[in-house]
Design brief:
299 residues; alpha+beta; 2 domains; seven-stranded mixed β-sheet; five-stranded antiparallel β-sheet; 10 helices; 29% helix; DUF4357; DUF4357 domain-containing protein
Amino acid sequence: MNIIGKTLKIYVRGLNARSLKSIEIVNWTGKAFMGNRSHLKQMRDISELEETGIYLLLHDDEDSDLTKIYIGETDSSSKRIIQHAKKDWWENFIVFVSRDLTKAHVRYLEERLVRLAKLSVSSLKVMNEDMPSGSKLPEPDVCAMEEFLANMIFVLETLGFGLFLTEKRMDDPIQYTGDAPTYYLTLPKDLSDDGENQKALMHVTDGSFVLKAGSPIRKSARDSFKSHSYFGLWQQITNSKAVRPSQNPNFLETTQDMEFKSPSAAAAVVRGGQTNGRTDWKRVSDGKPLFECELEEAA
């Protein structure tokens, strides 16, 4: 059997596991630095962070279950992030640099990342006020930057930041989900035109909970849901281009696959109310609840 994989090298600058880190993929010219506000002073001592780069500012918003993100490009990563210390909403940063990156390259990457972030309505709240202009690159450079972008997202996902819904996942859902089992979630019969339960579909793959395109979402949230942490997530999705009107006026319909951090987050968005996703999502093949399927798989 041929095994294909990638090797990442993580260097921790100090003896504390939470210290500033650098991350590299073997045979890739790019390099990532990950840290938080307490590491701003250390950044001044790293020569690579004085170079052209692209950066992300991050904050997990507990009120909405979304990750706030700001994406930018800069000629000096350390100086720019230190300037951003005036913004009080973020805690963590990730910077990507490379000796081969030019100003045009990072402008291209910035526009691509912001565009992907705006597609990722189930995981990200984009803090950029304007859409970056990007840059026009020759075809060889576009190919090189798309490969660089893929490696950036690979590093982010390996570090636990599975934030971006990529075009590959949207255009090739079968490859993305593989042999993952399908689960369904029913909505109330009284909201249906024909008295039948509407059903949303979800795949579970590599720890991600993927609500499938074409799934119904309740158009009006329950009153009790408005004080729940997932209400902000429901609001962002129902007000986005990721949904459209359905034939039933009580529901919206998803236009793309959407990744969620938990089955309960996906279920709450579908039903417009607090829901235990591990009990209410049922396997299509036999109607068994998700939590029983997880126990079965772990046995």
